[in-house]
């Protein structure tokens, strides 16, 4: 009941023997990470040489990296990464700043419809969840490359399914994992001293503090995450009360038969919640950043983020008051992995793979996890790293507004991406038009 | 009245005909209007056609190759569609009306007074503020935690935390109307003053005005009866452009408007950007609805124009000397003060945010002033700044050259550009960009894909060209033809007359047109984003992305830089004529 088996294909994956296809990848990883070990099999030689080929072909090129550009911290990190790949491979990494990842999906689709099948403008794209599902369904992504990157082995793919599934959909080597995020909350300690720690408490809290909480309007990614967190929690409660296991259906694609039943508790919950929200739930914030700005304006006292380190960073650059404190809900934190992918028509696919491999390197991952830089949790598994690499991940004393270490007691997996659509449509019909 | 005026000009032109030999220059000149038409019609109509097909469900990329009305059916079933349409119509029409009426009131109350130039100087910087930045600045004033609220808190209101309020994002679109009105007012005013700056027209109207005063008309009445009927035709296209823009814009409603539901244009953009690619069909159908909506508004405006003309024609000659002029004078002065005060307060707010440290409600001033936001912005600004300038300069120079050639063609052939041509020039301003840009990008994909810079510069040209034309045409047409005739009769070739006689006389208006063209190019968001495929970052795309994502402080820095760039252009345009080609200035 407490461990969520969200991934239907998980058992099969776990049963794969050490000598199956994954062993190859893993052994490459060991070969790289323990730099003294020498390759032993022909397969490995072949793979290494194909990687050497990629290295040779990918050098001295441009890589257009389409990534959300709304956070200066992330932008600065990408500038650092650009400098590194420039030094290493003479690759000119250009960060194309998106305000929404779907803009890049549109772009690739437009190119496909114009029969531009190998000179695409997008070389690399920061993606996960629904955008990935869409691109994968429409065959817009390059296949079977990410699992061949040397650094992929450091994510321990055999025992760590998070790197091979994106919202429950198999990645099939179309995505290289880049970081991990969890839904965490933050509050203004000058306006409220006891923030809610479960979904039930949240409803009581908003009733006592009307207008001080809101969530971004779907289909915003963060707003959808809040709704998914609520949906999972509501079903957990219901299942515990009735002794059923309806929640398991959230891990499967939504069907016409089960959608209404599964979503009913969510609508009841929102009907209760909305009148106590900011602007009485008749207007919603646009994005997580908009919500953060309203916390700074003291219009909101409680908010949430999918990237915990952005909160202390915002305080440090004065974008949030010093009285902000972060915490995680005790009933569970929705968690997911984010990835980089290469469109099928990328102009520089080899160079993009070099960049993706670099982004997964211990050096780049450690830098990214530093709270002052970005604070995005690494996808690498410490046991696959040598002591020197592990040392890169040691951090200093955190800022008072930062999420305390080990604050996340329990992680909750993402429902199947098809639920995003179902929730979004239902939400739009019910709350998209205010009376 | 304008018709008479045009006829007289035509008479003056046909009086003396300077014969000229055809050479390369005249050949290029005579071809340029055709080139101009091609340049504008192809992308705009081509772009429209490319949303027309998907609107009827023809999208080969999604493996849909049968025509159907599914997109429109989906569109009609969108919850809140009528609210979206009403919001678009309401905000577009009312803001345009407000901006227009305010422009007239300011002109009428301060015509021929030094205050007119002062107001112009105060308002013209607003012209160069990008819509997104202006929206952020306005939002900060009227928000529950905004400047107005801080000025009375907590000593008067007792608010320790920001109260719950209605603005921005109010369901009636009042915030959008406020933002759009403030942003369009300076544009219309400058366009009116630009028309009045034409030596012949300005002189004539000022004389008419003086005569009316001498005949005992009160100043405001004198303006409405003696000046406006002649002036209005020069304002018509700018007004229609404002109306078209206001009814279909995206940035202002996105930042200031409600979102349950938003305006139609915002919804269409969200559909186009949606992960669900099948929504493209509905989005294309929506784009056609937007086209119809904007077209309807323009028709409504033109119809009302006639109705008003018919109703008030009699009052022009009824001899009545005043209509509570003194009262209107006071109202206008008060309103103008409020508008300018509002704008100044918004600008002060913008500057304070750009250097603010912690600044918790209800403090009126930031706790500390820091340069951090400027420092971090400058480290990331190199490429966008270069792109902004390069694209602006390329598109502006091209627009200026083409405009001059077309205007010269008009003078050489002794026929004014056809009505059709004049209309086509404004096509990119009258057709909602959301309706044709997506199609245009698709077309550009077909033609050339790898030169994003060229695509962006070209798309900017579509928007820069009309403004440059608008700004230059009247000055060019009012050039005293006698100089050219004398030069020609002394044996100067048309090229020489053009370069050495006409252009120097046009030095001041040319610089203004260049500054305007640059400002327009600098401010483009949607065209830059779409045509460049996001590859070309400019200060504006960065500002909008950041306005969506990061802090108000960083946004303020970008907004200030966005304002500074075109301002430098305008300052140069004002200063340089004082030192060069002085005879050409008014």
Mean pLDDT of chain B: 87
Largest sheet of chain A: 6 strands, mixed
Alpha-carbon distance between the two ends of chain A: 40 Å
On the 0 to 100 scale, the average pLDDT of chain A is 86
Which strand order does the major sheet of chain B show?
A: 1-2
Q: Spell out the helices and strands of chain B N to C.
A: HHEEHHHHHHHHHHHHHHHHHHHHHHHH
**Which band does the percent of strand residues of chain B land in?**
under 5%
Task: Estimate the global geometry of chain B from the Cα principal axes.
Answer: globular
**What count of helical segments of chain A does DSSP give?**
15
Query: Major β-sheet of chain B, in short?
Result: 2 strands, antiparallel
Radius of gyration of chain A: 22 Å
Which descriptors apply to this entry?
heterodimer; A: 435 residues; alpha/beta; six-stranded mixed sheet; three-stranded antiparallel sheet; 15 helices; disordered N terminus; B: 586 residues; mainly alpha; two-stranded antiparallel sheet; 2 strands; 75% helix; globular
Describe this structure in words.
The complex is a heterodimer of chains A (435) and B (586). Chain A has 15 helices and eleven strands. Chain A is of the alpha/beta class. In chain A, strands 1, 2, 3, 6, 10 and 11 form a six-stranded mixed sheet that branches. A three-stranded antiparallel sheet of chain A has the order 8-7-9, with helices on one face. Chain A is globular and about 60 Å long. Chain A starts with 9 loop residues before the first helix and ends with a helix. The model of chain A is unreliable at 1-40 (pLDDT under 50). Chain B has 586 residues and is an all-alpha fold. Chain B has a two-stranded antiparallel sheet. The interface between A and B is large, with 69 and 62 residues.
